[in-house]
Each structure stands twice: as C-alpha cells, then as structure tokens.
Amino acid sequence: MNLMDIYQELKDDIHVIEQELFRSIDSHYPLIEEAASHLLKAGGKRIRPVFVLLGGKSGVYDIERLKHVAVALELIHMATLVHDDVIDDAETRRGKPTVKAKWDNRVAMYTGDFIFAQALSRITRLSDPRVHQILSKAIVDMCVGEIEQIQALYQWNQSLKTYFMRIKRKTALLMAISCQLGGLVCNAPEPVVRALYRYGYYVGMAFQITDDILDFTGSEKQLGKPAGSDLRQGNITLPVLASFRNPAIRDAIINEFKSGSPDMPKIINLIKQSGGIHVAKTIAQRYLEKARRSLEDLQSVYSKKTFIQITDFIEQRTY
Amino acid sequence: MNLMDIYQELKDDIHVIEQELFRSIDSHYPLIEEAASHLLKAGGKRIRPVFVLLGGKSGVYDIERLKHVAVALELIHMATLVHDDVIDDAETRRGKPTVKAKWDNRVAMYTGDFIFAQALSRITRLSDPRVHQILSKAIVDMCVGEIEQIQALYQWNQSLKTYFMRIKRKTALLMAISCQLGGLVCNAPEPVVRALYRYGYYVGMAFQITDDILDFTGSEKQLGKPAGSDLRQGNITLPVLASFRNPAIRDAIINEFKSGSPDMPKIINLIKQSGGIHVAKTIAQRYLEKARRSLEDLQSVYSKKTFIQITDFIEQRTY
Q1: Is A124 close to B110, i.e. CB distance below 8 A?
Q2: How many CB atoms lie within 10 A of CB B198?
Q3: How many domains does chain A have?
Q4: Model confidence over B228-251: pLDDT tens digits?
Q5: Chain B contact probe: residue of A88, A106, A137, A177 with most B CBs at under 10 A
Q6: CATH of the domain at B115
Q7: Domain residue limits at A30
Q8: Do the chains contact at A144 and B27, CB–CB below 8 Å?
Q9: How close B6 gets to chain A, by Cα (Å)?
Q10: How far is Cα B225 from Cα B228, in angstroms, rounded to an integer?
C-alpha cells in the first residue's frame, strides 16, 4: 500500500490543493517561479494537506476553507525545506538537485522567504484570528527549533529531552497544527480539535524518529544521500543517543569524529550493534500507539480509518 | 535638527514601542536573543514606527493598536536587514559587526526568520483582516524585490524603470504601508489613508535614492563601509544609471569591471563628473515634492508639520 492509495477518496480535493500550490508560486518572475516550482514538482508526500483535509472531516467539511489552510501549511513546509538546504549545504533533496545547488544560497534564502510570504498571504483569506495565532506561534517555535538545531550540532552531551524538543519543533508541531486547524476551520468540537492536535503531534514525532532511523538503515539510493549523513553533519539523532548508553561505543564514535575524518560505515555499524536502532524503533512505536489512541475521540469513521492507515504506513515506511 | 528632536512629542510612545521590540525578541534562547538584540541595540532611525504613529494622528489615535503595527513593521524591517547581511556578505552595518559576521550565515538566516515570525505573531493581535492582507501582500512584494535585486546585479543594460521598481519594493513599500496602516487602524477617512500611503511611498523612494547617492558621496567613516560599495557588489543604482547617459563614461565604467579589479575611486570620480549625482538628486527632490503635496489632504496639524520636518530632514541628510 502506498500513501496515494490511502488518499484515494481525497483525490479531487488534493488535486485542487496541488493547483493552488502552483498558483501560489506564480509570481510572473521567471527566477522565483523556476526556483519554487522546481521544488514543487519534486513532489513530496503532501502529508500536511492530507492531515488538514482529514481534520476537516471531523467538522462540517468545507474545502473552500480547508484549501487555504492546506496550501499555507504545505508552503510553510516547503519554505523550511528551502532554508534547510541553505543550512545543510545539501546538494540533493528527494533525489533532485536542491534550489541552493542549482542557483545559490542567496536565491535559495529569498525563495524560501517568498514561499513563506505567500503562505501568510494565503492564510489571510481566513478571518478567524485563532488560525493566525496558532499558525504564527508555531512558526516562531519552528524558527527557535532551527536555531537550537544549529546550537546542538556536535554536542555529544545533549540529553534525550533536547532531542525530543528539537524534533517536536522541527516536524511534529506543523503536523499537529495541520490536523488541528483542519478541525478548527470546519468547526469540529473542541475536544476533537485537541485530539486531532495530539494525533498530529504523536505521529509527527514518530515520523521524524523514523526519518532519523532511516538515515542509518537506508541505502544511498533510497535516501538520495549517503547513509549517516545527518550524523556526518553533526546532527545527533535518537539512534546515536541511544547507542551512547554503551560508554565504549560512545567513546569510539566521538573519537572517530575527533580524528577529523570519521569512518562513517564503521560508525553506522557501531550504532547498529549497540541496539540504538532498536531502541529508537521502540520509542517510535510508542508514539504511534499514542497517536492511535488519540483517534478514539474522533466521530468521522472515514477520517479515523484513514488516519489509522497513515499511522500504519509510517510504522512500515522504509523510505 | 536631528530626527529625535522632530519626534519629541512622540517620545513616550516611541519608548513603549522600543520596549515591546525588546520583548518581541525575548525568546529565552541565548543565541537568538544575543543575535537579535545585538541588532536591536544597534539602533536605527525607527522611521517606520514614527510613520505608523503619525499615520494614527489622522484618525482616532490609539497607541494600544498602533504599537502592534509599529512593532511588526520595525521587526519586518529588521528581519530584512538580517537577511540582506547574509546576501551582502556584509561585515558591518551601522558601524557594528553584522549578525552574520559575528555568528554565521545559518544563524543569521534563522534569526531573520525568527524576527519575521515574531512580527507576524505580533500582528495577529489585531483582528482587522485588511491589516493582514496589506501586510502579507507587501511582504510578498518585498521578497520578489530581493530576488529581482540579485537578478539585476551587474546587469549594465537595465532600465531606469527596473531600478525604480526595485527600490519601491526594497524600501518605499514598507514606508508606504507604515503610514497607511497607522491611519487604517485608527479609522482615518479613506482618502486620508490613501494620501498617507502616497506620502510614505514618495518619501521612501527619495530616501532610497538618497541612500544610493550617499554611497558615492559619503566618506568611509560616515557610511561605515568604503564609498562605492553598492556598485562594487554589482548593485547598479540611480547615479550610475544616470551617468550612463554619457556613452564614454558608461564604457569606461563597464571596462573597469571587465578588467576584474575595478578601480573604485576612479569610477566614483567618473560618476561625479558625469553629473549622475546631480540627476539623482533632482529626481529625489521631485519625489520629495510629491511627498509634500500628498500631505495636503491631512487634517492633523501636528502630523502634517512633523511629516514636513521629516521630509526636510531626508532632503538634507548626509548620513
């Protein structure tokens, strides 16, 4: 089963959103359009828009309102990808050259700003001040998360708590408010909106942990970059932190980095041997369980069923 | 006369805004705070907040509403400064080391994003959807302007129209909406709000042209960077474009750049000899005249008087 099969029933509405996404980056300026549509065409899972739509199913489903939220959230996600590429010195994303690699850092930064601004412009079509407040607060938190992530690079002594806080800001928060805002703009009952937020949060945490596991277990072909790239760039994720419970492995890994030219295949093996991957998988599964339990309060049979399928998909995903 | 003398009557309200600006960047994260407050402490003319307050004088002046607009607009201005520093590889701004130079590009980019997000968060305190629409549309345009500016670097054949469009997006637009939104949130009559917008736009155009002139006529000490820095970095401004009316001077300047190591003092002299500075000054003065004429519809004697003083200040400014 792949994600698009799960979304089948939402196909027409996703198509509407896809068109609006392209319209949003239609600036009449060739450089911007090329840079932004380049990213848009690279695709992506469109999980956030789907979460918005599914959230809406718990209220009085209204695609005319939902589409603005969905487009805004996907654009915000895209803007962060563009800015992450500037940071990461990433040369490819989703197997395609990044905006940064194809043009340069400056254009990438302003393309990110532009996409971000379009997201905000889009959300002004909704007058409910709660939407703007939730969104802007989340964006502030996401920015804090990005700066924290820089600060945490190569910080071998960071706590698990730091890691969880970081991935909340980096990934889970936007997924949480995707579900939440979908419910909110369709006037779903308050406890349901809260349950939607929780679902998005838990599933987002699991999603990011899975990403962090795949960085070690995936092949270069699947990942579109060499395995261990996150750690190579100083990003210390859950499998690494879990492996550090074994002091010998911790020392061996840190020493590899201190040498100046870390042997990544060796480090990846150490992490695998340590059981760090297994620990991370267990934690991801616990989040997925919590996500499933959050769905109990939902009334919409369709959205409950679909959210469960998405949860299962994230549990099994290998790319 | 300096700007702060002009603002005397607004002193208390500017103080409120200054405090709120500091509160806005109070993130409890040392790195962000240091990076952002560093910029905040460097000061600046706070022209945009003053424009907001003066705009408010044309309606039912309400500092509780005006302060949110003023803080948001100044934060947006600051965010663009931070991102410009990433672009410009600038090592100093207002004589102090830039965020970029002191930390690095990545932190600068996300600090800009953070300040920007705080601006948006701040503006959600106002529920009038027109405010959000005007603001988000302006931000989109500003981002387009930034990308256009990159595209226009070293484009010797660009038209005057391109230049004027660029400085509108870069500078005049934010000043225009500062005046406009001040009037709008205090319920000034519609024709007055439009006049306020026009004033801000015209004065903003003159302000940027003056900046572009000073880049050639100022001393390194006044500018905080060597004279001719804009052109050195490929930014072709009005004095340069005006000097190109003389084909011999045009060829001489372009040839200097083609040589790979342009002799900036020589180029600056060529531009001065060409009369390019004089042409630019004349055009700036025309904009200032239009700005003054826009004030005719204003009812508030105080704001009219103050706007005129600011216009005179911009006419005479040498730094």
Answers
A1: no
A2: 19
A3: 1
A4: 999 998 999 999 999 999 999 999
A5: A106
A6: 1.10.600.10
A7: 3-316
A8: yes
A9: 34
A10: 9
